[in-house]
């Protein structure tokens, strides 16, 4: 996902109107122009095909079993009923917990990298963070399954359960492999941290130095500068970083498939196994028959809906913010 | 003497007030500084909390992976299934390494030309089509990768009746890479100074000549950086290839053969009951991470060279 900073850059960039050398009234349109248009048509066709194919394949399920998919639990292969509520709830739980943890810790980390650590280490740390953001998610999943899960099972779960009321909140330990919704949230948080830090560090480090110096000269303390000047100035970019991290967390497939436990129950006790939409598609697809594939495709459209609306909301927030900034 | 007393009188009055003000401001400054110090320490703690799991991850990856990849057979042999008689016979992962390279190569061949051309069009045009494609590419760039797998499954496998194959996986990866390349190329082409274009046009060059011979060469570093980043993302993706490549246990370059891939064999080995396979998996992960790191670092170095050249 090392393209995320890049993506943000393009989203935040204030666009000029294009060089428009092709539509500046030059009558002679060359083969090159048509080649570009052809490429655009192929790209548009692929994109439309992408959305259309998944929608088309899920249509039978939406027509006949929409209520079951959205409101029921229990996944009876091969012929249904296919209830998707457990996956929807699991997706929301894991990604929201992961997001809260990652944003809180990540913001502190970015501030530390930009303002606190010695200047000569900054480039090294920033490079390291970007490399970590490029580590494939399967590696985070692997680490979660082979290192964190035994640790959760032997150390964390007993410790959590030694607290009063913890059993009522988190559920009982006794899970055989240590895989749980809590572990999935932790792995997701660790996974989206580098992504969030990579972008928010970039966003924070471009806050104009004059603003910071002006505020310091008025006697503001270091925290006041950060809170009153740096964070408000970087707000748009931080919004963007948060939404990209959330989109990544909701769409993450393979890491969650490895560490969430893969049980289709609506589960609010976080130490019990659960699953997410994307992880469920990945684990069930291999043995799925025709009907089940339709139901999985319907889950896919749901995931697409969540993801695309997140993208739209972040675009809207960023553009609104830019307008506000422009007025001020 | 009396003059001096008269002058000191108002000073003294101000002095009292100044003391009072100083007291108040000292009190607030102490509070502000305490608060500032606390929050700064908290930020430092956050840095530590970030560093510990990520550092542990890298450490354990190298610590457990290095012993595995030091055997030549790891790279040259096909995977073997451990048995009760030979529980450590894991073979190698040559099929996954070749599979990953083949998948990424075919995907790159499909995605790069279209991606770069679309990026150039987006940068140089202000039409409605360009605006729409820009929104599409940004939305697609963030789409969950499992959806590319669903798309490839229903289009290549169901509609075109091609079996589980390398080409189906490459198609999924190409869909994944396309928007990244489009966005990177657009940014790169936009970064080319207008003076260059105008100079070319002023000399009487046709627009397409200007675009091909002046703008593209000037933007090539940015485009290549974007392509490398797209490839490094594609090579590590598990979800899209999981559904369609079939996980073949053969070394094959042919597009219609079922192949394996590094992330896929990590996924399968990690779930295995055999301790020997769960040991081997760290080696596969290390190879994959080294691939990705080399790609990302070369992209960074390439990009910084460009900045120096300017």
Salient structural properties:
heterodimer; A: 328 residues; mainly alpha; MetI-like fold; 74% helix; 0% strand; globular; B: 310 residues; 2 domains; 79% helix; flat
Summarize the structure.
The complex is a heterodimer of chains A (328) and B (310). Chain A has 328 residues and is an all-alpha fold. Chain A is built from 13 helices and no strands.
Descriptive report:
- The complex is a heterodimer of chains A (328) and B (310).
- With 328 residues, chain A is mainly alpha-helical.
- Helices cover 74% and strands 0% of the residues of chain A.
- Chain A has one domain (30-327): MetI-like (MetI-like fold, Orthogonal Bundle).
- Chain A has 13 helices and no strands.
- In chain A, α5 crosses α7.
- The two termini of chain A are 34 Å apart.
- The model of chain A is unreliable at 1-27 (pLDDT under 50).
- Chain B is 79% helix and 0% strand.
- Chains A and B meet through α1, α2, α3, α4 and α5 of A and α1, α3, α4, α5 and α6 of B.
């Amino acid at each position: 996902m090392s393209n995320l900073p890049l993506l943000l850059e393009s989203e935040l960039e204030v666009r000029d109107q294009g060089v428009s050398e092709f539509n500046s009234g030059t009558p002679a349109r060359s083969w090159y122009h048509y080649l570009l248009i052809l490429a655009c048509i192929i790209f548009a066709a692929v994109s439309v095909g992408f959305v259309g194919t998944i929608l088309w394949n899920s249509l039978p399920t939406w027509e006949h079993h929409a209520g079951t998919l959205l409101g029921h639990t229990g996944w009876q292969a091969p012929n249904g009923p296919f209830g998707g509520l457990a996956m929807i709830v699991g997706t929301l739980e894991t990604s929201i917990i992961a997001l809260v943890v990652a944003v809180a810790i990540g913001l502190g980390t970015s501030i530390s990298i930009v303002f606190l650590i010695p200047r000569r280490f900054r480039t090294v740390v920033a490079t390291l963070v970007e490399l970590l953001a490029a580590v494939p998610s399967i590696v985070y999943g692997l680490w979660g399954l082979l290192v964190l899960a035994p640790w959760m099972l032997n150390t964390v779960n007993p410790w959590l359960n030694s607290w009063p009321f913890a059993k009522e909140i988190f559920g009982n330990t006794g899970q055989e492999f240590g895989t749980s919704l809590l572990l999935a949230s932790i792995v997701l948080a660790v996974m989206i941290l580098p992504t969030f830090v990579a972008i928010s560090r970039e966003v924070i480090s471009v806050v104009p130095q004059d603003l910071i110096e002006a505020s310091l000269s008025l006697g503001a303390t270091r925290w006041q500068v950060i809170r009153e000047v740096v964070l408000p100035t970087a707000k748009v970019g931080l919004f963007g970083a948060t939404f990209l991290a959330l989109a990544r967390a909701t769409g993450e497939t393979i890491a969650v498939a490895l560490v969430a436990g893969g049980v289709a129950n609506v589960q609010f006790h976080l130490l019990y196994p659960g699953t997410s939409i994307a992880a469920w598609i990945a684990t069930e697809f291999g043995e799925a028959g025709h009907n089940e594939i339709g139901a999985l495709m319907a889950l896919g459209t749901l995931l697409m809906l969540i993801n695309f609306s997140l993208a739209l909301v972040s675009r809207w927030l960023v553009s609104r913010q830019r307008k506000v900034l422009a007025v001020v | 003497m009396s003059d001096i007393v008269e002058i000191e009188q108002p000073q003294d009055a101000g002095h009292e007030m100044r003391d009072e003000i100083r007291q108040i401001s000292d009190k607030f400054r102490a509070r502000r500084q305490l608060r500032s110090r606390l929050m700064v320490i908290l930020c430092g703690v956050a840095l530590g909390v970030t560093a510990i799991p990520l550092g542990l991850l890298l450490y354990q990856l190298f610590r457990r992976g290095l012993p595995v990849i030091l055997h030549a057979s790891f790279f040259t042999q096909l995977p073997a299934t451990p048995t009760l008689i030979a529980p450590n016979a894991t073979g190698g992962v040559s099929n996954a390494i070749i599979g990953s390279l083949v998948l990424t190569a075919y995907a790159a061949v499909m995605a790069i030309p279209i991606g770069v051309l679309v990026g150039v069009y987006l940068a140089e045009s202000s039409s409605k089509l360009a605006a729409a494609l820009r929104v599409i590419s940004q939305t697609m760039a963030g789409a969950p990768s499992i959806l590319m797998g669903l798309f490839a499954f229903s289009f290549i496998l169901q509609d075109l009746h091609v079996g589980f194959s390398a080409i189906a996986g490459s198609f999924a990866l190409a869909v994944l890479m396309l928007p990244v390349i489009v966005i990177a190329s657009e940014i790169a082409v936009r970064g080319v100074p207008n003076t260059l274009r105008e100079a070319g046009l002023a000399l009487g060059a046709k627009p397409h000549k200007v675009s091909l011979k002046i703008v593209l060469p000037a933007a090539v570093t940015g485009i290549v950086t974007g392509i490398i980043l797209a490839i490094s993302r594609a090579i590590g993706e598990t979800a899209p290839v999981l559904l369609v490549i079939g996980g073949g246990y053969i070394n094959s370059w042919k597009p219609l053969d079922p192949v394996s891939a590094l992330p896929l064999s990590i996924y399968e080995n990690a779930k295995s009951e055999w301790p020997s396979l769960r040991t081997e998996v760290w080696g596969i992960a290390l190879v994959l991470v080294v691939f990705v790191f080399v790609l990302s670092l070369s992209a960074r170095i390439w990009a910084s060279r460009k900045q120096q050249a300017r």
